[in-house]
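Ticket reopened. Same input as before:
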Amino acid sequence: MIHKADWKRKIFILCNTLFLTLVTLISIFPIVHLLAVSLSSNVAANAGVVKMIPVGFTLEAYKFLMEKSDFLIAFGISLKRVALGTTINMVMVILTAYPLSKEKSAFKARTFYVWFFAFTMFFGGGLVPAYIVIQRTGLMNTLWALVIPGALNVWNMVMLLNFFRGIPKELEEAAIVDGANHFTILWKIYLPVSKPALATILLFTIVGHWNAWFDGMIYMNSPASYPLQTYLYTLVTQNFNKKLLTMDDIERLKNVSEKTLQIAQIFLGALPIMLVYPFLQKYFIKGIVVGSVKE
Amino acid sequence: MKKRRVVAMIMFILIMTSVFFAGCKKEVSNTPEETGKTENQSQETEKKAEEEAKKDTDPYGKYDEQVVLTAVGGVRPPEQPEVPAGTTPENQSFIKICEDTLNVTIEYLWTVPDEQFEQKFKLSLASGDVPDIMKVSQQQFDELIEAGALADLTDIYETYAIPEMKADYEGLDNVPLKAATRDGKLYGMPYAVDPHQEIQLLWIRADWLKKLNLDPPKTIEDLEKIAEAFVKNDPDGNGKDDTYGLGIAKDFYSGIASIKGFAQGFHAYPAWPEAWIKGSDGTLVFSEIQPEMKEALLGLQNMYQKGLIDREFATKDLGKVVEDIVAGKIGIVYGEWWVPAWPLNLNKDNEPEADWKCYPIVSADDKPALTKVNRVNVPAYNVVSKNCKNPEAAMKVMNVYWDILFNKDPESRYGDLVKAENGFVNHYPPIYNYMAMTQENNYKLINEALKNNDPSTLISSEQKNIYESSQKYLGGDQSGSSWGFYFSRIEENGGWGTTRKVRDAGHLMYNEYFGPATPTQVEKGSTLEKMKVETFTRIIMGAPIEEFDKFVTDWKKLGGDDITAEVNEWYKDNKMN
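Engineering reply: fixed in the latest deploy. New output:
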């Protein structure tokens, strides 16, 4: 429907544009700032004079990084983790959400399982038991320690479950009449019409795996096997408020001044995830169920 | 329908409880066995240790059979640029040295970046992985003793510690050892630092003073005037109003840009860990609830209102303040002796005309300002697990480390492995002691050597390095790092030079408490500290000073009175004079 362009409408469009531009700029500024600092000279970066434009432009930090094996290795581990973890997560979420989306008459133990999973959302064993489980099951210091404990994300599963429940039953019934079994229904009907939900969950999962740092820190036995975010975390949390300084600490503080290098790594670390968004965005817009069924 | 739901719920509860109890049961049945085992083991260990002590009391004695010590490590990148890339604690040359000379090898259970050490270590302990040797914080030290997890090192220290190490502790009147002793048993080798390192000094940009025709401050009043001139008279001459007087970070207690030095001018002693000073009745009182603290906060409030402190200081951590220092926006900062080595050197690199000078702290009245020092400064303890079969091997490892770092010509005994380019990193070994009196010894020996132009009297390789870089600086090298090195360590009116003067003048206020954290401190300490920092920040930013009185009442009520009683209980048996 096209509105007649009266003055009220014009003001709304103006305000809306201004507001959205502002929000966009606020989101973009930090990234531009990071990029500018990473391309500046070390002295300027340390003095905090770099704003949006590099001061004393240099590619030194990036050159150094490309030769620095730590960063590249951590980057590779993160990619592996995202690939493996996302696959496991998606399979688990879909396979769990489908049966739980059925009516109780079709799946008798449904209530029990829903409670069973919901319970884990509110109660956890805590850090120490989790650590001991990982240690005793022999997962410690392997990539599996990062993907198996969170293999089923209950929150995502509940989201997908609710989406499945919103799919008109007639679709499923029609498929059954045509002789489809549950796997066919899931694969041929539910998944194709659930693309928006799946894209959302996929995005959450990828971002979640990419950004996770804490598990890498506690389950890995040496910094050489850290994923990227754990590696970055250790870079930026140089202990500044050391209150009792020893000789060693003073020596170390000198190293902190490699600020451009830190920022360059943060920027590169955020880059892949920024690239994922545009690719998934189209699924948020299309693939809505409307129109599948005539009533 | 309903019935089924109830059944399902009951099933669910049953499963959960059975899982829960299964966990408990296992723990219960395991514990006595395990403790029994450890007791037997430790008895065996003691016997064995006694036997070996008889046949071998050589501090550097080599074992016939290889001894394995398990360890854990907090890793920081090596400082020396010569260290080959890829050197990790696991492959450092120190392990090779121990294998060659002692037939002791060190196996790492895990390593983690230093900042995360504490957390990983706690988890590791909770899951039952206790390494043979470890370097732990005061809090962990207390907890491990409480849990009975540590070996008694009393005899081992007597028998195996090398005389140089003992002499270093004696230089500190053996107070560090006292701090590591519980019920007459020595549970760890304290990594001791000379407590005088925390003496507060006043750092001022002398080039700005000169430009504005000002004299160095003698009193707090002078200091305020200088700060005002630094703010208003455009000392950097760029025509912009972009300079602050006094640099203060929101974290009040760090080694630089804290409120400590300024408050000490008012005879108040804010500190972390808390300072317990002797009150008028001879008992210990908490320094930060004394009336002097109120005066100090009023002084800071006054500075803030006049715009002499960054109006946004409450949001600036040390890193941000350092940026301002480097950018040349701050002309006055309180700090310890090492600040020329970082971050003032960065400012000098950025602005070569910057000329930082160092002065003793100034007082608000006619009494000299005292600086607070601890009776003892032990950031870490080297400890040995009770289950370690050869606890004396740990002592030998520490002996070798000391021998390499602080005795003459280690190359003659250990070969090229002690060099950085072959993978020797000073802070990589899992346990080690540093000479507490390093600064003092270096200052004396190197100044002597520079005067006589004769480096042959120098002992350690560190001293030789400082000697060389000092000569470079005196020969005209004006880079920030060589100035920072020289001005902090060697220069008579520099960091350590001034620190010594303050120390020798006796302008010190001792923190008399060096016991473990008391039960109430463990329980409520962090809440009290948070309340304290928030109140102080508010007052400095202009809140009515009555808030201080309310803070004192609250502090006492919320556990402070209990802590005071506990501290004084300890003090009865541990008076220093």
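DSSP finds 15 helices and no strands in chain A. The two ends of chain A are 24 Å apart (CA to CA). Please confirm and we'll close it.
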